[in-house]
Specification:
Chain lengths: ~375, ~400
């Protein structure tokens, strides 16, 4: 595993950065936020990104993807994270798309993956229930056998990129109690089905999220992903991969927040000198720089390790790297943005400046798929101590 | 029976007879408190009654001289009054920058005419004040301020912009620092002046914070004519006045964010944070189930306690007659950082529940916690940044070379 970009990857990274800088300055996110846009992203721009091959980058060529991996997807998502581009790469590609590619039957796959890859469809994944914190198995939503199929009843919250989605993949209990690993089954539920309702949520980072309510929704056996009752393994495999993608976004965000801060240190003057000439602040910036560098290494390593494992289950060493990336990125993004706001001084606290957006996104990302403490604990557990 | 004991008895009797019962337990914070002023609308008739009775008695400003509308109490008596009000869970009848900032400043630096003009109106809650210090280009380096005051006969003509003027949209008067002379040292040539917000040429626009709506404003002055008699202390001596006032402000902020809010939030036998952590993350054998979180909560509670003890030690020492040093800087830094740590911890305890901005799927208090967390990031900036306070400690307490 080499922690360096090859020529192709350099090109992907550069293309992505250039495209995002040109088509998605932070002012675009701000305008969507100000307009209280229902989707919170631009469908047209998402289609353009799909045409550039970004949505399909990590899917197999036989599915219509580019046959690359998370290492490459991470570069694109890092660029998006830099400018807070809100297109549904996390919910729709890293979560829903990955679930389809790891778990869907040939029929489901051919019905949904092409649309996901060309950007015409969004399939979200409802991994969160109220009060579950970071426990993927704390699922109360029930799937009761009914005829040849099931009826789904329950409520999911914080379903990322679900507003406007065509389908949501829903973990539900076919057996067992909330918290049990056994008895979870993943279902693909079309959002226009009777009994399905989505309510848009407005979150602190103003990204697309919804409450999903299922009231006796009929699902055929054909809607099941993976093996019935063994959904926990599949869900975990998906979330591990999505975590790496989220980390890449966080890396982009913290890098940009840091760059904004360093620029400000060079230009803001007090006491007749640039504030960046104060050694106390130079040292603060130097510390953030180091943390961002460590985060970058962890993200690169995690992406490469997951890619090496292919579509198979992830072993403890790979999962440790995922936890390493998420723990470091959580702490580093929060640090970079806390320091950013502080070093911007008063204007950092105003909505007019962008640095606050990064602080909010840092928090949302930190508290998604487990915070740093959760992943340090998981690291220790995987290391059997 | 000592005089103080008699005072305590009389005070309690008077409070019991005069304080509207409906106000018991209502806080006198930013939201519930009475700020007063020409534009003030009481949200409860008893708050008006309470203000009138207390103002009549001089107890909106208990230690100010009686001739200016105060109560003329000694500090020991004022403490008793505060204790008795607390025992009855009574709110302060009046809050605001008149009482905490400009009043004490006028008592110290104002001339007789200014005291007579302004202090009684402050005590009665008739005039609401705001503060005009910071400017877009002058924050930490406040002394570099550029708002111009050009002399024209009996008037100064004021031009410039002040930022972070909280509640300027609701205030009647502003006390401001302006530059009357740009030729010498920057600290010289600053004048402290009182400006009527109704004067032609004053305009106000709101500042939106990362936490949402805020009381802060930008206040613009365009050819505003202010009588020279509104200068407090001497022309060009505004920096001395300003520095005295900043000391007050820092102590106030330290109090608000440090000890005070820890106490206010203490609910349940084990305190606010342990209860919150227990309810959100579970317990095992009567302890927080998550050992990592337990450590974080305990670390915070211990820091908080040690800080409270330090504040107490300083106050005890002051009462015993020791000269206060530069503690206000230390309290400002530590109190505000403690408040930030509290919110960081709360947000982590809430986990995904902390991610709401508004609307469905989030509980009201959780939404409030999220906004408060964002707002707390400003605590280490407002009232002089932590970095500037650290410089003060390094220079004035530790005597480190410049
Ligand atoms: C929520 C809020 C409320 C406020 N309320 C008021 C108010 O009521 N009245 C009022 O007048 N002002 C108020 N302010 C303004 C506040 O006082 C200033 O923001 C603060 O003094 C910092 O100034 P600045 O914003 O210009 O930042 P700058 O001075 O530009 O500072 C930027 C960064 O540089 C650092 N820095 C600056 N100088 C040094 C140095 N010498 N050594 C090391 N680091 C340094 C600062 O610490 C900061 O991190 C408020 C600000 C906020 C955020």
């Amino acid at each position: 595993m080499e922690l360096v970009l090859n020529e192709d990857q350099e090109l992907i990274a550069k293309t992505a950065l250039d495209f995002v800088a040109e088509h998605s300055p932070v002012s675009r996110f701000r305008a969507l936020r100000d307009a209280d846009d229902r989707l919170g992203y631009s469908q047209a721009l998402y289609r353009e990104m799909a045409e550039l091959g970004w949505t399909g980058i990590a899917f197999a060529e036989e599915e219509g993807g580019a046959g690359m991996g998370l290492a490459e997807l991470a570069l694109v998502v890092e660029a998006l994270g830099r400018k807070l581009a809100p297109e549904p790469f996390l919910g729709g590609i890293a979560m829903g798309g990955t679930a389809l590619s790891l778990g869907a039957s040939p029929a489901l796959r051919s019905a949904w993956l092409p649309g996901v890859i060309d950007g015409s469809k969004v399939v979200a994944l409802a991994h969160q229930e109220a009060g579950a914190r970071y426990d993927l198995c704390a699922v109360k939503t029930r799937a009761e056998a009914a005829g040849d199929g099931f009826r789904l009843t329950g409520e999911k919250t914080g379903v990322l990129d679900a507003v406007g989605a065509d389908a949501v993949i829903v973990p539900a209990r076919t057996a067992g109690q909330p918290g049990d690993r056994a008895g979870l089954t993943l279902f693909l539920v079309e959002t226009d089905r009777p009994g399905v309702s989505l309510e848009r949520q407005v979150r602190v980072d103003h990204r697309n999220a919804a409450i999903l309510r299922l009231d006796g929704v009929a699902c055929g056996a054909a809607a099941v992903l993976g093996q019935p009752g063994e959904g926990a393994d599949l869900l975990e495999a998906v979330i591990d991969r999505a975590t790496v993608v989220l980390c890449a976004e966080m890396l982009g965000g913290m890098s940009e927040a840091f760059d904004l801060t360093v620029d400000y240190l060079k230009t803001r003057e007090q006491f007749g000198v640039p504030i960046g000439s104060f050694q106390a602040l130079q040292h603060r910036a130097a510390r953030v720089y180091m943390e961002v560098e460590l985060a970058r290494s962890a993200v690169m390593a995690a992406a490469r390790a997951v890619d090496a494992a292919g579509a198979g289950p992830l072993d403890a060493d790979v999962r440790k790297l995922v936890s390493l990336a998420k723990a470091r990125c959580s702490d580093a993004y929060v640090l970079a943005t806390n320091e950013g706001v502080q070093l911007f001084g008063g204007v950092g606290m105003t909505d007019e400046y962008d640095i606050g957006f990064y602080m909010k996104r840092a928090r949302a990302a930190e508290l998604t798929f487990g915070d740093a403490a959760f992943h340090r604990d998981r690291w220790a557990m995987l290391g059997r101590y | 029976m000592s005089d103080l004991e008699a005072f305590r008895r009389e005070t309690r009797a008077w409070l019991e007879a005069n304080a509207p019962k409906s106000l018991a337990g209502i806080p006198s914070n930013d939201i519930e408190g009475v700020w007063g002023g020409k534009k003030w609308v009481f949200d409860h008739p008893d708050k008006k009654l309470w203000l009138e009775r207390m103002a009549e008695k001089g107890w909106t400003a208990p230690t100010w001289p009686v001739e200016y509308g105060g109560g003329g109490l000694s500090s020991a008596e004022a403490k008793i009054l505060a204790q008795e009000m607390k025992a009855l869970r009574l709110p302060a009848p009046l809050i605001g920058f008149g009482l905490t900032m400009i009043g004490p400043t006028l008592l110290r630096f104002g001339n007789e005419a200014q005291k007579q003009e302004h202090l009684p109106k402050i005590c009665r809650g008739e005039i609401r004040w705001c503060q005009g210090y910071s400017e877009p280009g002058s924050g930490s380096d406040l002394a570099s301020l550029q708002t111009k005051a050009v002399r024209d006969g009996d008037h100064f003509v004021i031009n410039g912009t002040k930022v972070w003027t909280s509640y300027a949209d609701e205030a009647d008067w502003i006390f401001a620092l302006v530059r009357n002379d740009a030729s010498g040292k920057k600290q010289e040539g600053i004048t402290f002046i009182l400006i009527d917000m109704d004067d032609p040429g004053v305009s106000v626009s709101p500042i939106l914070l990362i936490s949402g709506k805020s009381p802060f404003c930008e206040t613009h002055f365009k050819d505003v004519r202010v009588p020279v008699t509104n200068v407090v202390h001497e022309i060009g001596a505004g920096w001395t006045v300003a520095k005295a006032l900043l000391g007050h402000e820092r102590t106030m902020i330290a109090d608000t964010f440090g000890v005070a809010s820890t106490k206010a939030r203490a609910r349940g036998a084990r305190g606010f944070l342990p209860e919150l952590a227990a309810s959100r993350t579970g317990e095992q054998d009567g302890r927080l189930a998550d050992a990592v979180l337990r450590d974080q909560v305990a670390a915070f509670e211990m820091e908080s306690r040690a800080f409270a003890l330090t504040v107490q030690r300083t106050k005890d020492a002051a009462r015993a007659g020791h000269q206060p040093g530069s503690e206000s800087s230390m309290f400002k830094i530590y109190g505000t950082e403690l408040n930030q740590r509290r919110y960081e911890l709360m947000v982590r305890i809430l986990g995904p529940d902390a991610l709401g901005w508004e609307g469905p799927g989030f509980d009201e208090t959780d939404l409030e916690t999220t906004r408060d967390w964002l707002r707390s990031r400003g605590n280490t900036i407002e009232g002089g940044t932590s970095e500037v306070q650290l410089n003060i400690i390094a220079k004035h307490v530790l005597g480190l070379p410049a």
